[in-house]
Amino acid sequence: MTDQNDDELKFGDVVKAGDLKQALDAIAAEHGGASLEARNKVLARIKETNAEGRERARLMLEDDGGGTLCARRICHLEDVLISAIFDYASRHVYPVENPSTSERLAVSAVGGYGRGTLAPGSDIDLLFVLPYRSTPWTEQVAEWILYLLWDLGQKVGHATRNIDECVRLSRSDMTIRTAILEARYLCGDRALYGELETRFRTEVVEGTGPEFISAKLAERDERHRKIGDTRYLVEPNVKEGKGGLRDINTLFWIARYYYRIGSTEDLVKLGVLSRREYDLFAKAEDFLWAVRCHLHFLTGKSEERLSFDVQREIAAALDYQDHPGLSAVERFMKHYFLVAKDVGDLTRIFCAELEDEQAKTAPGLINGVIGRFAGKPKRIPGTLDFLDDRGRIRLAEKDAFKKDPVNLIRLFHLADLRALDIHPETLKQVTRSLRLINPALRENEEANRLFMSILTSPRDPADILRRMNEAGVLGKFIPEFGKIVSMMQFNMYHHFTVDEHLIRSVASLASIEKGQESGQVPLSTKLMPGIEHRDVLYVAVFIHDIAKGRPEDHSTAGAKVARKLCPRLGMSPHQTELVAWLIEEHLTMSMVAQTRDLNDRKTIVDFADRVQSLDRLKLLLVLTVCDIRAVGPGVWNGWKGQLLRTLYYETELLISGGFSEASRKERAKAIRASLIDVLAERGWSEKERKAYIRLPYENYLLSVSHEDQIRHAEFIRQADQAGHALATMVRTHAFHAITEITLLAPDHPRLLSIVTGACAAAGANIADAEIYTTRDGRALDTILINRAFDTDEDELRRAKSVSRMIEQVLAGETSMPEEIARKRTYRRKAKAFRVKPQVTISNTLSNKLTVIEVECLDRPGLLSDITSVLSDLSLDISSAHITTFGEKVVDSFYVKDLVGMKVTNETRQANIIARLTAVLADEQDEVRDRMPSGVIAPVGTTVRRSSRRRSA
Which residues form the ACT domain (predicted)? Predict the structure, then answer.
């Protein structure tokens, strides 16, 4: 990818080739070149040189920060080692005084090694080039080299081929063609290698540019698809990810193949890239190489994924510092994503030039990468500045943006309005015209009208917004958005950067409005057609996290941004205040639904006081749904949807004047009547129906779906008929990657801890749990565990194994395995994350109960630890709400003392806080020692308890 200059890079500071060869010659002279003793000495010296050279490269990387330099230095070190090994093998082990024409061998580097850059943990790819066929001498020399490299501990990919084979295979295999394209001579017969270069150029490359370009771009697209077709994953793959080093390699391959150049800098001479663009390209490459080299040095292996557990250390190695609102690691990752975006911008510019060049010389590329250029572009109706070039927008004149900067917004509006793609040449001009987006354009009424039309488009607004963001227009036109472009949040909850999350939120809203998500979010889908303030909702969804990364709370700061931005977008004062309110409260509904007792009237009253109107309630619900669904895969689930629906319906009743105990009773009565009718249709006798319908509490009837109530009824009936005090049933949810285990058992205080411990013993990770109690003192618990197998057959077999473990433990037939007891003394903390433990006690969130809320880093056994402490403190847990946000949990416990009163004594409250804080920090070993042996709750448990279970 880059030129080598030994003097500039000071490769001698890493290793000196002459010194190593002299040392090996001395070994041969003393011990005999082919002796086993000499080989061992050679291996030891090579190992020493390799270790010292890599350590020097690491120290030089820390000193000068040059990522590309480091990759070249390691490559040069490898060159010296292989050349010395070849020289030793050919002169001292298998010397030939008068070699025949067949006894010639050229050793060349291919792959990344061939490009002259090598990461510390990368494989070494070699091509041994033969003139005709293999001979005993060439086989022996090649094997001696390979075995020594293997003994050195290196991973070596290799091939031994004659020139005819190289040419023939290159024609049919694009991988081999690419390898030989970037091959580099190392040692051996230079004339032989030169012959390969000449024949490859004339017999393979000549006239096949379109074919090669098409294959490489298709290969890139497939790679992006497999790894995640976005460059904004918060744990990116530095090598294979979108905007990573492999994308840079792809451009180099294409440029070298098509333009016959030796380095990317030659693209400046050809006019493909400007000097500024090339400098940006070089900086991007250098940064990515620095990250990759640090990653390999840090992990001691060929690790390409920039995972959370190494991001903080690499940020420190690259000397990033904390900044108000952003930690050092978040600043580092923001820089990473901006670099990845630069790679995408430069790719687009390069492809535009390549397409124009190809259009002059060829009818097109295969597979539709570059289509035929016959046919005159048509003018798009309503505009003089843009043309429709077979489904892609082109500029009628190159200075169209300069003449009217509003065209920078109009371009994307037309793309949305007419479902057109944008020509790469046009996007290149957009990138080069970003300086035209100034305060005057931002205040331009027409530009803002066009942008609002894009944002609220009934077609695919997220696609156009993403195109605007990729081109750099969105962040320039809305500077507040520009501040969060490529910003990541250093936690396990958010899967994407902030800008990508916001665009995905808009995509979620658009799909809901089109009715495409009725199965997942039925209430939001039902409400959307009746929402009056559609524009308000789209703006709020688009900017709800726009103030992330500031010292001030992002909801409060975001409302300030809204009050400034919305008038510019043409919104009225009323609309502006509504957007500001939605942003201020955009986390409220989610937190209330997941961390508060929705069966406590005070919860609903307090929430209704904040919402105040049905319009606001509808808007906030849809915003909340879009926000959660855009966080990342697997974050949204049916349980969260049910909680939000319950909160919505209860609040709607109160705001509309219909909330009362009588109302709840009437609803429960209607549900009971409906359930009785269904059971009658299923053949239940009247006696059975009357006996069963008295079992469920009202909360169960109002919270559980009708379908599940029927399943539970049949389940309990079968268990009673069989005389089973303990029973389980299972079913799978492949779409949600969840398996459901329903348990019927006699209720007792530590049931939850025992059940979660049994799940852990069986290797099942609990994702969710719904816990209810019947009036005859039995627990009806539904445990949701993460799916482990692709097929339902295998998953059901596993779930039944987990169920048997639960039954055996509850029946006293088995104790927790020693493995679980050992796990109790081990706390697997996510070292990359820091969550300060906090405990708060409130007597204002419930009229009858004290609410204890804890916030801390998640870990195995956390729920058992907390509930055990509360039990030791003689507190009765009425309901527990355990919610996981990535690595952080926010747990709320509604409690009372043993005489049924709130905890009001300040001394006792202080004691509760102290005891819980200690266990959250994992500092109170004696608390764990008093807990039942082997009880452990897996990471990520969410619990809903519908009725009160006494701890004593």
Answer: 740-822, 851-932
The pLDDT-based confidence of 447 (bands split at 50, 70, 90) is: very high
The residue whose two tokens read 């991973």 is 155
| CA count, 13 A, side-chain hemisphere, 202 | 6
Whether 394 and 355 have beta carbons less than 8 Å apart is answered as: no
If we measure between CA atoms, which residue out of 43, 47, 76, 24 comes closest to residue 148? 43
Residue (of 833, 830, 859) closest to 920 by Cα position = 859
Residue 750 CA to its chain's centroid (Å): 37
42 Cα distance to chain centroid:
46
What's the rounded Cα separation, in Å, for the pair 802 and 169? 53
Q: Where are the alpha helices (DSSP H) in 490-529?
A: 498-513, 522-527
Q: Which of 246-250, 639-643, 721-725 has the lowest mean pLDDT?
A: 639-643
The H or E element that residue 880 is part of is strand 875-885
Distances, alpha carbon 356 to alpha carbons 121, 367, 392, 737, in Å: 39, 17, 14, 47
Dist. CA 443–CA 464, nearest whole Å:
21
Tell me the β-bridge partners of 162. Answer: 130
Torsional sign, CA 712, 715, 720, 723: negative
Tokens of 834: 């820091």
Decide: helix, strand or coil at residue 349: helix
Summarised one tens digit per residue, pLDDT across range 768-810 is 567 788 889 898 888 777 777 878 888 888 888 888 888 887 8
Largest CA distance in the chain: 107
Give the separation between CA 746 and CA 743, rounded to whole angstroms.
Answer: 10
Does residue 258 carry a pLDDT above 80? yes
Query: DSSP readout, 778-808?
Result: EEEEEEEEE---SSHHHHHHHHHHHHHHHHH
11 token code pair: 């490769």
Choose among 841, 838, 839, 837: nearest CA to 905. Answer: 841
What is the C-alpha R_g of the chain? 34
Residue 824 has pLDDT above 80, yes or no: no
**Strand pairing of 943-945 and 766-773?**
parallel
The rounded distance, in Å, linking the Cα atoms of 179 and 193 is 14
Q: Give kind and range of the element (H or E) at residue 97.
A: none
Write down the residue that tokens 């669904």 correspond to: 629
**DSSP category for residue 496:** B
- Burial label for 140, CB within 10 Å (0-12, 13-18, 19+), is middle
For the chain, domains (ranges, CATH) are 6-204 (3.30.460.10), 211-368 (1.20.120.330), 375-450 (no CATH), 725-945 (no CATH)
d(CA 645, CA 663): 17
Which residues fall within 8 angstroms of residue 815, CB to CB, at 6 or more apart? Answer: 809, 933, 934
What is the C-alpha to C-alpha distance for residues 133 and 137, in angstroms, rounded to an integer?
11
Q: List pLDDT tens digits, range 479-501.
A: 999 999 988 877 666 678 899 99
Sheet order of strands, 421-422 included = 378-379, 386-388, 392-395, 421-422
The values of phi and psi at residue 128, to 5°, are -90, 115
Closest C-alpha among 800, 779, 799 to residue 738: 799
Report how far residue 10's alpha carbon sits from residue 63's, in angstroms, rounded to the nearest whole number.
14
* 3 state DSSP class of 896: strand
Distance separating alpha carbons of residues 651 and 645, to the nearest angstrom: 10
CA 320/CA 356 separation, integer angstroms: 41
534 forms bridges with which residues in the sheet? Answer: none
The amino acid occupying position 668 is A
* Contact of 61 with 85, CB cutoff 8 Å: no
Class of residue 936 by CB neighbours under 10 A (exposed 0-12, middle 13-18, buried 19+): buried
State the number of CA atoms in the 13 A half-sphere of 323 facing the CB.
Answer: 13
DSSP state of 91: I
CA angle 553, 558, 561 (to 5 degrees): 135
The secondary structure of residue 478, as a DSSP letter, is: S
